[in-house]
Amino acid sequence: MNKTPYQYTQNNLLVTPQNYQMSSYEGADFLVSYQFSRSKIITKLEKMPKFVPYSENLFFSQRVSQATAIIKKNKFSTNELYHSIITELISNPKNMQVIPIIDKFLKKFEVRKKIFLYYDNKFNNVGDSFKEIQNYILLSFMCFIRYQVTSDLKYLNTFLKLNDTICSVKNLIINRIDISLFHYLLTSEIKYVSKLLDEMDT
Amino acid sequence: MIGIILTPDNRSKAYIQKLISNKVKLEHIILMNKKTKEKSFSEDKIRISRSHGFDISESVIQTLVKNNLTYKEFDFIDINHRELIEYISKINLDYCIFTGGGILKHEILNTGTKFIHLHPGIVPYYRGSTCFYYSILKDDNCGVSAYLMDKNLDTGDLILQLNFPKPSHIYLDDVYDPHMRSETLVAIFRKKLLEKKKFQKQDKTDTFPFFIIHPILKHIAILRCIK
Questions:
Q1: Residue A71's domain spans which residues?
Q2: pLDDT tens-digit profile of B173-184?
Q3: Residues B128-139: pLDDT tens digits?
Q4: Is residue A16 part of a domain?
Q5: Check: complex ipTM more than 0.85
Q6: Roughly how many angstroms between the first and final C-alpha of chain B, as a whole number?
Q7: Nearest to B215 among A8, A107, A201 (CB)
Q8: Which of A11, A70, A93, B175 counts the highest number of beta carbons within 10 A?
Q9: What is the pLDDT of residues B51-110, one digit of tens each?
Q10: Which domains are present in chain B?
């Protein structure tokens, strides 16, 4: 097996965020280490008793308000907002109203590498709790859908970083939605990375 | 009057060495220097840098001393530092080339000097960080935009934009990025664009910026360069 492990998920990134600045080039083997590392987690998720293959029905079990209404509240739950955005995106992946909200949270994650439990209507965090792993998985899912629709590398870039963060705290993935969704996201991520690599050969 | 603010890094090395070799005269040279130890480079990297017109193994101070150039040195690296602002206000430059990154605050922008920045991406499409990696992945080439800095990120009036082919080596951060920016800088002087003052307003459409590239995408971009 390759000698150098994929280093970007080795530490708990919720505690010690990775800034990715001036990352070194380690040759083509780096991509092998990455695939190996992700595949190990995919296998681990598949072996979990609560694992079921992803289906869109995961999101339709709960009734949610409209995202544009949620962000007008003085204090809103990030989780509620994310569920709402995803429900809207699944019914219409090109939904224009939710895109600025996704971009705002994408930027917030890129700058602080944290997603807080609550925000106010100016998108400032309310409180300082940020360790709810499902919020990272849901934002990752939004990046995935946006990349699928737009092929915009900005979304793939943040998708990879969010997935690193989630992989770095994989033991926190315990509920049914998180297990199935993250399994689907990692599998899709590997496919997109492989597709980019394949484009290189054509 | 034109000046330059240098810092002890590869970009400054490329800028000052190429300006000298192209006989560009600068009225003021400022060096912000924390006096950290010079990095060492592999023989291959040095060879490639020389093939791009600058020597990465030669420090900025070595270049300045070798060419008998006088310079004002500060023992900090901070474009918004009070002492630097006072000095720039005093020497009354028309233009100042700024080699570093970061956003210029109100005080330094109000000194009356126009600051020139060379950004490694064609704006408005490529704003933000590590843009040349993204443009290699998307467009199979790179680009540089030279502009006068304003209070926002990569939105100032354009002086010149140049496209470059992707490199055929792996030293994008240390060699090719400084190379592209310094070539664009030299072209500004060769075309006398600062004298002509024909700057172009940017399309300030609020395009979403690129953030630091993930190592996976960076590797794919570099592998595309050397395939």
A1: 26-201
A2: 999 999 999 999
A3: 899 999 999 999
A4: no
A5: yes
A6: 45
A7: A8
A8: B175
A9: 999 999 999 999 999 999 999 999 999 999 999 999 999 998 999 999 886 678 899 999
A10: 2-121+144-204 (3.40.50.170)
Q: Whose CA is closest to B145, among B109, B106, B193?
A: B193
Residue B192 is predicted with a pLDDT of 95
> Quick check: B39 contacting A, CB < 8 Å?
no
- Residue to substitute from A157, A166, A196, interface B, most B β-carbons within 10 A: A157
B201 — contact with chain A (CB < 8 Å)? no
Q: Kindly list the residues from chain A whose CB atom is less than 8 angstroms away from the CB atom of residue B210.
A: 153-154, 157
A6 in a structural domain: no
**Residue A13 falls within a domain, yes or no?**
no
Count of domains for chain A: 1
Residue A122 is assigned to a structural domain of this protein: yes
Contact between A200 and B223 under an 8 Å Cβ cutoff? The reply is: yes
Cα dist from A197 to A23, A41, A61, A186, B90, whole Å: 19, 22, 37, 17, 54
Q: How many Cβ atoms from other residues are within 10 Å of residue B135's Cβ? A: 23
pLDDT tier for residue A201 given thresholds of 50, 70 and 90? low
Query: How big is the A-B interface in CB pairs under 8 Å?
Result: 60
Whole-number Å distance between alpha carbons of B215 and B195: 41
Q: Is B214–A26 a contact, with Cβ atoms under 8 angstroms apart?
A: no
